[in-house]
Amino acid sequence: MNKVNLLFLAFIAICSAFAQVNDSLLLAEVTVVESKLLRLRQSQYALQNDSLARVGLTFESAAKWLQNESSSHIRQYAPGMVASYSTHGATSAQNAVLWAGIPINSAATGLTDLSLVPIQLLDPTMVRGGNAALFGSAAMGSVFNLQPNLSQKPFLINVMGQWGSFQTQNSSIQLGFRAKNLNSLTSFSRSSSQNNYTFQNPYLFAKRIDTLTNAAYQITQIMQNTKFLLGKTQWIDADVWLTMADRESPQNILMQSHGHAKLVDKTSRIKLGWHRLKNNMQLDVNYAFLDEWQRYTDRDIIDANNQSTDDTNKTLSHVAQIDFQKKWGEKWVWQGGAIHRFDRVGGSNRVGQQQTSAAQTSLSLHAGAWKVLAALRAEAWQGKLLPISPYVSVSAKVLKHLSFHFFGGYNYRVPSMNDRFWQPGGNPNLLPESGWSYESSVVFQRLFGKISLKSRAAFYQATYTNLIQWVPIGGGIWQTENVKNVAVSGFDFSLSTDYTRHNLAVAYTANLSLNSSQIRQSHTANDQSLGKQLVYQPKFKFTQRLQLGFKNWFTQIAYNFTGVVSSSYAASNNTLPGFGILNAKFGYTIQAKSARYLLLLGLNNIFDTYYETIAYFPMPGKNIALTLKLEI
Amino acid sequence: MKNTIIVSAALVLAVACKKDEKPKPVTPATYSSGVLISNEGPFASGSGTLSWYNNATNEVENNVFQQVNNVPIGNVFQSISVDHLLNRAYLVVNNSQKVIVTNLDNMTYLGEITGFSTPRYLHKTDVAKAYVTDWTSNTVAVVDLNALQITQTLAAGNGPERMLALGSRMYVSNSGGFGIDSTLTVINMLTDQVQGSIVVGHNPHSMVTDANGALWVLCSGYNDFANPANSTNGKLLKIDPTTGTIAQTYVFPSNSNHPTQLCRNAAGTMLYWLSNGYAGEVYAMNISAPQLPAAAHISGSFYALNVDPVSDEIYTTDALDFQQDGILRRYLNDGTQTDSVRVGLIPGGIIFN
Prior knowledge:
The complex is a heterodimer. Chain A is mainly beta. Chain A is built from six helices and 36 strands. In chain A, a hairpin with an 8-residue loop joins strand 30 and strand 31. Chain A starts with a helix and ends with a strand. Chain B is mainly beta. Chain B is built from two helices and 28 strands. In chain B, strands 3-2-1-28 form a four-stranded antiparallel β-sheet. In chain B, a hairpin with a 6-residue loop joins strand 24 (about 305) and strand 25 (about 315-320). The longest helix of chain B is centred in the N-terminal third of the chain and has 17 residues, at about 1-20. Chain B is globular and about 50 Å long. Chain B starts with a helix and ends with a strand. Residues about 1-25 of chain B have low confidence and may be disordered. The chains are: A mainly beta, B mainly beta. The interface between A and B is large, with 47 and 56 residues.
């Protein structure tokens, strides 16, 4: 055991000694964006952690967290590497990620690297389905909000350490307090792994055991969330989220070299907010500063000056956002907002800037068994007004335990700055991707004594037009162009049930998704992708999870099956086989005064299944992780 | 109920068993004739494939190696070399750092040669001896084809690419790699020593000899992706191989096009090339022409080019958007298209048996 681990254990011991009991509570304040998300959930499926899942939550990136969701598909070169996800035929850049309501998808790449989003430090909500009228560009497939999770307790200490296979070490500390007007939470997290797992290489004549190399990572996260109450009707807050990631880049295992590429990311996000409540009206004013610095090196690629690749790029965004809502009685809520965003990119590979401004409004009605939400959004991008984006949802509780839901709207995504300004090949004349989406669902929800049961079946359709793709234009130059139109349809089914009595809690969830995301039109000559499923969009995925809590014991067993995935439109290189992964967690909790210790053993990929989420990049086989967690 | 479960399970098993289809059988002893196409495959995360085109029947068979051997070739299948004497094919796999040796008749795996950094082309010069250019290590490996081992490594320039054997000399074009070079490395094949170098234009790509014994070198010119203004024009050079002096220089008119794939007809009186490396048109020129042709011989967007050494038919490949399977096109020597077939992803090499 090294010094870091000894220090960590010593810290746990010191913290335990300071454990105190104090149960004073203050009312939680909810922002307008959180209220918007709540109203979306009237008709759209939402994924959140339930209370049992929070017990077993240790170190999870958003990428790992979303793997348990049947309509989400995560792809990574290896754990800890850049992760992107797709849902309902929408690619990673077509899913909006928010941090405390602020859109944080990178202006440069258009997406958020989900392996750098620590779920244990943030409270995640993923609402599935297009909702660009409410959340703007990129909200074509889903919106994924990450809410800082300020403590309601006067004093909070969370300390967690994890030791796992492949020299994986994770640690995090959260210190929080709530005084009369001030609420503060400081979070620090560090994850590292050599990722040097072994696998039997299926692509060689000699089915030899290989070890993944050049996949080590170190990720550090620092967060500071501060809220200061200005009387009973207003508060200000300041949130800071710093991420430093130093990650190698593994090689395709068809290659025999180890590779020497490395990616260093430094991201700074700062948000300042003022919030006012008055006469059933709430006003949120936020400003956010988003800064990304990225350096990519590869000493295997040498240029004309005999220099190896060493590219540094920087992205800067300023976001100003105003949201308000007013309630009329118990039935009507009028909500509106405006956002202005300025983005600038610079560095080795691209230089450019853009401005977007949008205004948005929605009106919701809750009358008896009916809930209706209508929204409109107008966005100006680079001085041009984009088509008005409407959205409507209707929910009706037709029977005591049965409700019907519908939503539909027009969604869009403006091109990323890399799409427009990358040298060479960026195309400043790109059009936004856009399309309509609809979903109808039926929900059955009932209590049978101590057993609750909820089931949801949904059919959805969507179109994505003007999909952006890099295509060769000659001279070795690739250029981004709006080339394809995609038609999406599918079915999602979910079942969840739980039972709680005395010291026993049981919860079971199952999700099944069928998806067809077919390319219907292309501007590319002889396009072989016509009629084919989008790459890396599984047609079928099934997930199920059983959780048991009994007295001090906790168990979670999760099985996820991902069907065949197309990895290329070429007939000769087209599919990754389906795979099923079984994971389990076993935990024991010790409550000592106000301090709670949790010892958790995680067994991952128990059947040692060989699988890939990107072609020729193996994911780890069976592995374990031991977690020690202290909460005060 | 119990019976129902048993029957259901049996049905499920029966259905499951049907899915276990065997690979498509391959007719043996076919690949030693016709045309072989090396398809590079996706650069970062995929495997190359081998296509075989029967130029007698115009039929194509794709993914040959995988079908026969049930493993992929590897990442970036750069080139093929055929060896009728030993009845072998050598599949040079760039990023996978190996040369796969197969039976030429049926493409069954025989072994592989490793120890390269990024092998590009194999050129056999003796019964059991070959040279392999190694792009990032800037070397040429001498290979023992019996032992399937590298016996010697010779220093070359930046990005050694194609080779041409003439007399006792092996000429190696140093294509510049990711950067720039302007030389041909000359190897004495009798001693396996580097004899010297010839200065040509920026980034020599491919070479042929003509009917008169002259050496023609096509230089692509330097392509600066980040700052196109720094790019240089390509050149076509005629060299006297006995003295190593440049007899004639043709300069291409633009620095935005970078010609590649120099070929010749059977008689050695005509030269052919692509006007651009990723999406070029076919140009043709008589070896006695005073200047470069103004118009393309075959219009289109081509990635690879070769000329049938028997029929003088012209074969090209079109990599399309580099994300779907490419197209092999066949033309009469006058440029009239006679056939086109889908091959694999990014077809980068055409070899005639």
